Amino acid sequence: MQKLAVLGAGNMGIALIEGLLKSDFIKAENIYATRNRLDRLSSLKDLGVNVSNDNRKAVQDSNFIIIAVKPHLVSSILNEIKQDLTEEHTLISIATGVSLDEISNIVGADVKTYRAMPNTASSVGEGMTCIATLDENSDNKQKVKIIFDQFGESIYIEEKMMDAATVIGACGIAYSLRFMRAMMQGAIEIGFDSRTASKIVSQMVKGSAEILIKSGNHPEEEIDKVTTPMGCTITGLNEMEHQGFSSSLIKGIVASHIKINK
User: Fold this and answer.
1) Mind listing the domains of the chain with CATH numbers?
2) Annotated binding residue at 117?
3) Is residue 11 part of an annotated ligand binding site?
4) Which of 53, 54, 36, 45 has its CA nearest to residue 17?
5) pLDDT given at position 39
6) What kind and span of H or E run contains 10?
7) Distance CA 50, CA 43 (A)
8) 116 to each of 64, 141, 178, 211, 216, how far by Cα in Å?
9) What per-residue confidence (pLDDT) applies to 22?
10) What is the pLDDT along the chain (262 residues), one digit of tens a residue?
11) For FRET with 3, which of 49, 51, 169, 249 sits at 20 to 30 Å CA-CA?
């Protein structure tokens, strides 16, 4: 890793930078973060990151560039920096819905171009990033993967699946947290104080994920282990399904996917 610039460092960009710094993968002095509102980057500045509102200077001083602006701003920022991009640069967009072809049409085919969809868990080293590219250079592909591996897991997928990856990997954080909030509310209703409810639910969800990660089992296999005949678990599960639990979640996922494609 040499030098990296994050252009348009909002919540996601800041999360990525914080994840990289926590992993000791790159020194703060070799990271550039840009944003119009520099006061929003004060926490990164305190960590030693170079902060500015000069996108072109950040590009000139870096070899890996992450475009972290909102989708409707991607075109304008690419047009701003395209004269500073060379074949030595690797350009990574984390903007939803902006295709590799759209990016290459602006910056040129010589610039190595990638799309990545990380999530905000990157800031705590537990991110999930899906990556797509037309770059055939396996060495460069590995370098890009290593960047995102610093704050969790990353995989390469076909570009046509990037919108779906956004819904499951990125929107999914919000879905999971909403589920956890409901669990905590239920825990309070049956007697726990909010702090204890939060601790129990958070560790339970973490443990549930680790079971699937380490065993490779389908969720139903693990559900069967805790659903005894006529027990409280199956009673609760059946009531949730009667109220549309799984159906509501699936409908929400599909609705988010439709929204991206509008």
Assistant:
1) 4-157 (3.40.50.720), 165-260 (1.10.3730.10)
2) no
3) yes
4) 45
5) 87
6) none
7) 11
8) 13, 12, 25, 27, 25
9) 84
10) 589 999 999 888 888 898 888 888 899 999 999 998 888 899 999 999 999 999 999 999 999 999 999 999 999 999 999 999 998 999 999 998 899 999 999 999 889 999 999 998 888 889 999 999 999 888 999 999 999 998 899 999 999 999 999 999 999 999 999 999 999 999 999 999 999 999 999 999 999 999 999 999 999 999 999 999 999 999 999 999 999 999 999 999 999 999 988 7
11) 169
Strand 64-67 versus strand 4-7 pairing type: parallel
- 70 labelled ligand-binding: yes
Tokens representing 96 are 């939803």
69 annotated ligand binder:
yes
**68 annotated as a binding-site residue:** yes
DSSP 123: G
Give the closest residue to 134 by CA, choosing from 154, 153, 167, 162: 162
Judged by DSSP in three states, 156 sits in strand
- Asked whether 4 and 32 are in contact (CB, 8 A), the reply is yes
The response to whether 12 counts as a known ligand-binding position is yes
- Tell whether the torsion through CA atoms of 140, 82, 164 and 185 is positive or negative: positive
- Measured in whole angstroms, how far is the alpha carbon of residue 148 from the centre of its chain? 9
